[in-house]
Design brief:
The protein is mainly α. It has one domain (3-113). 93% of the residues lie in helices and 0% in strands. The chain has helices at residues 3-52, 56-61, 64-113. Helix 1 (3-52) packs antiparallel against helix 3. The radius of gyration is 25 Å and the shape is rod-shaped. It starts with a helix and ends with a helix.
Length: 114
């Protein structure tokens, strides 16, 4: 294997990794953010609909601040903690996928160069 071939191989590996990271990053930014917004809206609408359709006896017994506190705590949980956990898992998956593509590219390129 000549030096020029090795340099071209290294450059192709770097560009493949770079393009994979850009593509997966764009998918992460648009896809996950969109799904989290839809999920948050659905949760908000469902909770609000359930509170509006509850019996009057429940509203008489339960103070409004308790309902509001429960409502805001659930929304905070979904808006803050769930995206953090999803981002953590997604970054791990992204790392594994890009490493698998790099190994595949390395072996495919090395087989073609022989």
């Amino acid at each position: 294997m000549s030096v020029t071939t090795q340099i071209c191989f290294s450059i192709s590996c770097v560009w493949t990794y770079f393009c994979n990271m850009i593509f997966i990053g764009l998918m992460e930014g648009t896809g996950i953010a969109r799904q989290l917004l839809l999920g948050s809206s659905r949760l908000h609408d469902t909770i609000f609909r359930k509170v509006m359709h509850c019996p009057v006896s429940f509203l008489d017994v339960t103070p409004p601040d308790r309902i509001l506190k429960k409502f805001s705590r659930d929304m905070d949980e979904f808006d803050i903690r769930v995206p953090f956990c999803i981002e953590f898992v997604w970054k791990g998956l992204k790392l594994v996928i890009t490493q698998m593509l790099q190994v595949y590219d390395f072996f495919l390129s090395s087989l073609l160069l022989w």
